[in-house]
Every structure is written in structure tokens, then in C-alpha cells.
Amino acid sequence: MINGCENTASLTVGYHPEASPFCTSVPLFMAGSHSILILFAHPALEKSQVNRHLIQAVTQLNSVTIHDLYEVYPTFHINVKREQDLLLAHDILVFHHPLYWYSSPALLKEWQDLVLEHGFAYGHTGTALRGKKLLSAITTGGSAEAYSRRGYNYYSLRELLTPFEQTATLCGMQYLPPFVVHGTHLLQSQAQVEPHALAYRRLLLALRDDRVNWLALQPDRYFNQQLDQVLEPVETAHYG
Amino acid sequence: MDNNTFFYQAFVYLAAAVLSVPVAKRLGLGSVLGYLIAGVVIGPFGLGFVGQEGQDVMNFAEFGVVMMLFLVGLQLQPELLWRMRMPILGLGGLQLTITTALVTGIGMMTGMPWQTALAIALILPLSSTAIGVQTLTERGLMKTPGGQGAFSILLFQAIAVIPILALLPLLTTHAGASVAPTTDSQALAGWQQTLLVIGTVGGIVLGGQFLMRPIFRFIAATRLRESFTATALLLVIGITLAMQKVGLSPALGTFVAGVVLAESEYRHELMSTIEPFQSLLLGLFFISVGASIDFNLILAQPMLIFGLVLGVALLKCSVLIGLGSLFRMGLSQSLLFAFALVQGDEFSFVLFSFAAQSQVLSERLAGILVAGVALSMALSPLFMIAYEQVIAPRFAAPASRDRPMDTIDDNENAVIIVGFGRFGQIVGRLLMANGYRITVLEHAPEQIDLLRRFGWKVFYGDASRLDLLAAAGASQAKLLVLAIDDPEKMTQIVNLARKHFPQLKILARAIDRRHAYALIRQGVDRLQRETFGSALDLGIEALKLLGMRSYRALRVARLFQEHDQEALSEQALLAENETALMARSRQLSQDLEHLLQSDNRDLPNHIDRAWDISSLRQPTEDPR
């Protein structure tokens, strides 16, 4: 059990009966390649066009495992051992979820509570996650302006994400600038959503293939706002 | 005994019991004292309703003691005996040894031959199991350290009676006296006698292990309760006859048979079958003890006999209090168990008369001792009352603090599961997997065999009988899980349990909707329709295969379940009003119609409102 694909059925997203399994990670050992685990949490994906597009854009990429938490654990009964094994088998973690009440949906919080155990994720002997990277991929209904001192959410999204950042820090992980899509209420047509989906895919591929110029990365801006500046150009296309 | 005197006597004894026991219990004196007083009242020194023939009755009623030891044996699985070995051997052994040594010494000081002194000293330390256990249980003191200590000592004594019986004939001071006049084996040499004893006891053990279970299984398969009762009585009487034949105590034989059968699935059924006979005969026995107290003897030598009673009581108390502090029981608990055990043993009547028959004791001495023991039994409830009124209040706080000492498992499990088929097994396995001990009652012998082969403790019995429920520990249990197929029988059990064991929470499996209605109206605490849960789960799988996200499928199913449960409770009350004559199939189709009408097809659409962002579009599109 290296890539968590021993049970593909449980990793299937079922909103399209004909949809292929999301679990697409094929072990691919090449130099400069990292494996990515997307912990995707959305209780009503059938109602979210934006998240459907984002997920579809990163489906079936080599070394990228999509773990659809609400599909696998509808009863909230999380298999801790299995989740920890999944974490061990990947280098980069992505918490992909809509922002609900300035935090993650309940199941991802439950996942953190149970899986990030003392002695595994933190504490003297809890070194399993050390050196890994954590990326938050967030969608919000409110616009970017809403998350500012002038907006009705007052705090910036970076401020609101500090619990995730500190979680990463305590576990010895590097917390990356978040990937954020604001104003999902306003994104209705495919054309409006498509650029975000492509950016998400571009970012994950760059992380996977280690093509990020870390020195150029500005920590206080969203990752997707600085893709052109920090991603090194693709020499040989590694799509798929 | 012709019919007239038989019925006359039966009438007198039963009337005495019926009148005196409730009065004695109401006065807080306990049933034993009630029986004894009734015996005195109807005896030759009271109203004189029964006279010399009381002796016959007593001989007959001793059979109650035989049955009692069978029941004591049934409650003592070898495993339980083993777990209690420390208190039994330590407390029991020391109590008997020390008291015997002291009484022997005192007896020899008064100039008795050592054999006589020893014979008396072996019998006097014994305490009545019937009185001790009954008074402690009646007062809810059985679970205290003192109560458990008393029980351990009584157990040890129940076993010690066996070697004492064997030892007594050897203590005869008359050369050439026979072992026991009633046996046919007196001509045998000592080693032959020993072989015979070992052979008989071994036969009971092997027979109980390998012969009785197939027989009981065969009888149980007939489902005729009276044939089971007849078999159980036959077993006890048969053992009694066999033991008398070889010159051994019938009580020993039935005790051994009880221990052997304690492991079997028929334990509870046997207990509940024998128990009424035993209580009745034991009551009769106490009455005849009361009737046979020789007041002439007491009046002739009042100082001697009262001195004997008080002296022995004082001696036993001091030894027990000493042992209590040795075993770190605390003073209040030591006093409790000392006071619970001051009385003589009903078995010592048997032993004294046996000793007299074997010419170990003279008839006169035996008579004095019997009178003394009977008096001490009559006085023992007074000791308990003294403990409760005077001593216990002073120790109220410390007694409750040092309460949980030994966890002695007495087989009273918190959960009773009735019916161990496909449904009950799942419940039972879940509870067992989480460390809860369960008592299982099942009425299909084939099923019991199978489960026993896999190491389950399953007992045979029809749980719609009050006595069997009681024997399975219903008065101490917390939960009663009903998982049987027969709705009528389940109704009976629910009514019985509601009436007699109100503390029990009842969890019932309903066969179908109609049955669920009935159970709801009966007020069971928890209810599960046997097919509903699994059908719902399969429905969830169907929704998922049709493309629904599993979290949503789960939530709509839960919603459906809540809705259906509400409808069930509502319709349970409606269904009460319908005429019972309506054909069942018609009822069920009508139920379905009600249900379909009440199903709200839009309901599932309400569940995701919180996550539906379409309602948010309006305000955010509108610049504030």
C-alpha cells in the first residue's frame, strides 16, 4: 500500500456515473518528481461547479492522488492507519476545500483531529510529516475585496488560514502560499471557470516536477497570483 | 399415612407457612424466622396440631436440603470456584479449623472423650447457608466484602460437610459400632468402602458430563415442560437413592451433580425447575425444625442450653471478627459477616442425627445439641436486626468507602439476550467484542449445541417463564434484548419483564410493522425492525450506483429513516383503534398506503440547503 490505490472503488467520485476513478496515481520514479496527495473535502460537490472543474483538471495526472474524503468517509468513520500510510507515501499535501465559516468543512477537520496524531505528526517521535509541503487550495463565495479590512470579512484570507499554517509548522511541514479562487458565486460559465482550473493544473504539475523557483516566491501573495514569476518554464511537456 | 391425615397435615403446614411468613417478613424478621415460629406454634408445645409424626415430616423435608445443595452446586461453576479459591480456602479453612480446635479443647476440658468433643466441634462451627444467604440477600448485603466473605465461608462449609460425614463414623467410642445403620455396605472393608465412594462420585461426575446432557437435550426437544420437570426431579431423587445405597450423604451427591451441570446449557432451566420444590421443602423443613424443638429439654436445662447457644455464638463471632481483621475487612464488615454466620447449620441436624445413629454421640447429647442449634437459628435473625439497627449506622461512612474490594464474579451479567439466531448473535457479538458479558437464553437445542461448540455460554430455556428470567439474573441485569421470532411470546416476555423487573431496559427486534406497533404500545425502550436497517443500507448502495455522492446518499437515507420512524410511532397509536378482525394482509397493504401518502418526495431536497450557494448570489451580486 504505497499510493493508496488498493481500493479504487472507495476513491471514486460518484457525481458522474461514468466518471473514472479519481485515484490515478501511478508510481513514477523520476528525478525531480514529487508525489502529491489532494485531500479534497466538499460535502455537496454536485452543487459546486467551480470545484468540479478544478478537480477534473487535475484528474489522471501521474503521481497525483485525489482523495475525495466525503465520498470515502460519508459516515465520518476515518481509517486512521490507512490515512497515515497515504501521507507517508506522498511528499506534498493539498487541503482542497471550500471555505466554510472561515475554516474547512467538518470532515477535513475531523480528519486532522484523528490522523495528525501525537507521535505521528507532532511530538518527540512524531516526525512522519517533516520536510513535506502543505498547500491550501481554497474556494470562497465572497470576492477578494470581502477578505480585507474594507470588506465584510475584515480579515485577509492569509490571516484566516493561519490555523492551517501553524498546523503545518507544528508538523515540520512547509506551508505554501495558498491557491485561492474567490467569488465562486459569480463564476457561472465554463469560460469563467476554465482559467482557474488550468492554473490549478499548472501549479500542481510544477510542484510535482519541482519547477518552482522558491527564492522568487512571495509568501504573502496567493500562489496563483505569481505563477508566471515563480514557475520555471516547461522544457519537456510532462502532461499526463 | 392415610389420605385424611395426609391432607390434614398438608393443610396445617401450608396454612402455617402462608400465615406466618408474610407477617415475619413484614416485621423485618425474615422468612426463616417466620417458618421457625410457625413450626413452634403448630408443634406439640404450641397448639399441638402436629405431634410425633412431625419427625416423619422432618425426614421428608430434609430432601429440601438435598435439593438446596443441588442448587448451590448449580451456581458454582468450577471456574467460579477457582476464582474464589483464596477467600474460600483462607477464610473458610481457617474459620473451620480454629473454631473446631477451640470447641474440641473446651469439650475436653469439660471431661468429654476427645472423640465426642471432636465430633461436636466439627459440627458446631457450621453455619446455615439457607439463613445466611437468605438474610444477606434480603438486605442487599451480599455484594459487600462482609457478604462475600460470609458466602466464601458457607461455600467452604458446604464442601467440608463431605469429609466430615466420612469422618464421623470413625469417631465412635463404642467398639464394633457400624458405619451407618441404613446402608447395605456395612459388611464391606474400609478400602472397598472407599472405592465404592470414589466410584459413585466419579459416576455422578461422568454421568453428569456425558449422559445427562444428551438426555436433557432429548427431553428439551420435546418442548414439554412437565417432562423436563420430571427429568430434573428424577435426577435428584435417583442420586439420593444411589448415595443412600452406598452410605453417603445424598446432599453430597446432588452437590457434585450440581457443580457438574453448572457448566451445561440447562443450568438456568434446572434451577428454575427445582427451585419451587426446594423452597417449599426447605420451608417445610424449617417448620418441622420449629415443631421439633424440645421445649421440655430446654425447660429442664435452660442454663445449659442457653449457655451453649450464647457460648458458641460468642466463640464463632470472636473467631470471625479475628479472621475479618486478618483479611483486612474493616471492623464494620467483620462484624457484618460474623453476625451473618452465628447461627447453626440446618445440616447439623442431619449430622447430629447421623452421629447419634453411628453412636458417636448419645441420643441425649444429640438432642441437647439439636435444640441448641435450632435455638441459635431462631435467634440469628435477631442478630442481623441488631447489626442493622445498632452497628451499621455507626459505620455508615467507612462501610461505603471500603465497599468495592474483591470483584467476585457471581454470573450476574448486565445483559440478557433472549433468542440467539441470526439477529441476536450480531447484538451479542458486538457486546462481547466490547467486553460486556452476556447471558443468552435460547430454546432450540440444535442451535445451543452449535454455539456451545464455539465456546459461547448459551442456556436452554423458555424466557416467557418468570422463574427462568429470574434464574438468568433478570433482577440484577440492566438490559433485556429480545431477538426471538415469535411475536406472541415476545409480548408475554415484555409484559413479564415490565411487571417484575421494572429496572430492565427492554430492547426488542420487531418482525414487521405490525409487530413494531404492538411493541411501541407496550412501551419497550428501544425498538429495531429486523429488516429496516439492512434494507436502508442497500438502498444507499443503490443511490450511489445511480450516481449520488455517498455522503448525500447517506444523509437522504437518514432523513428517510427519521421520517419513517416518526410515521411508525404515529401509526402505532392509530393502529390501536382498528378492529382486530381486519385481515392481516389487508392491514399491511393499508399500512403501505398510509406510508406512501405520507412520504414527502421533496424532502431530500431540503437537506443541502446550507451548502447551496445559489441563494447567496443575489446579495453578493448586489454591491453593498
List the helices and strands and how they pair.
The complex is a heterodimer of chains A (240) and B (624).
Chain A: E1 36-40, H1 49-57, E2 64-68, H2 69-72, H3 80-88, E3 92-98, H4 106-115, E4 133-139, H5 157-160, H6 162-170, E5 174-175, E6 179-181, H7 190-208, H8 227-230
Parallel strand pairs in A: 1-2, 1-3, 3-4, 4-5, 4-6
Helix pairs in contact in A: 1-7
Chain B: H1 3-26, H2 31-42, H3 54-74, H4 78-83, H5 85-109, H6 114-123, H7 129-138, H8 145-167, H9 190-221, H10 225-245, H11 250-261, H12 267-292, H13 295-300, H14 302-326, H15 331-340, H16 346-357, H17 363-394, H18 396-401, E1 415-418, H19 422-433, E2 438-442, H20 445-453, E3 458-460, H21 466-471, E4 479-482, H22 487-500, E5 505-510, H23 513-522, E6 526-529, H24 532-545, H25 550-575, H26 584-598, H27 614-621
Parallel strand pairs in B: 1-2, 1-4, 2-3, 4-5, 5-6
Helix pairs in contact in B: 1-2, 2-12, 2-17, 3-11, 3-12, 5-6, 5-8, 5-14, 7-8, 8-15, 9-10, 9-11, 10-11, 14-15, 14-17, 15-17, 16-17, 22-23, 23-25, 24-25
Task: Outline the structure in words.
The complex is a heterodimer of chains A (240) and B (624). In chain A, 28% of the residues lie in helices and 12% in strands. In chain A, helix 1 packs parallel to helix 7 (190-208). In chain A, strand 1 (36-40), helix 1 (49-57) and strand 2 form a beta-alpha-beta unit. Chain A is of the alpha/beta class and 240 residues long. Chain A starts with 35 loop residues before the first strand and ends in a 10-residue tail after the last helix. Chain A has a single domain, classed as Flavodoxin domain (Rossmann fold), CATH 3.40.50.360. Chain A is built from eight helices and six strands; from the N terminus they run E-H-E-H-H-E-H-E-H-H-E-E-H-H. In chain A, strands 1, 2, 3, 4, 5 and 6 form a six-stranded parallel β-sheet that branches. By secondary structure, chain B is mostly helical. Chain B has two domains: 3-40 and 65-174 and 185-396, Na+/H+ antiporter like fold (Up-down Bundle); 415-610, 3-Layer(aba) Sandwich (Rossmann fold), CATH 3.40.50. Helix content of chain B is 68%, strand content 4%. Chain B contains 27 helices and six strands. Chain B has a six-stranded parallel β-sheet with strand order 3-2-1-4-5-6, with helices on both faces. In chain B, helix 20 (445-453) links the parallel strand 2 (438-442) and strand 3. In chain B, helix 1 (3-26) packs across helix 2 (31-42), helix 3 packs parallel to helix 11 (250-261) and helix 22 packs parallel to helix 23. Chain B is elongated. The chains are: A alpha/beta (240), B mainly alpha (624). Chains A and B meet through helix 2 of A and helix 25 and helix 27 of B.
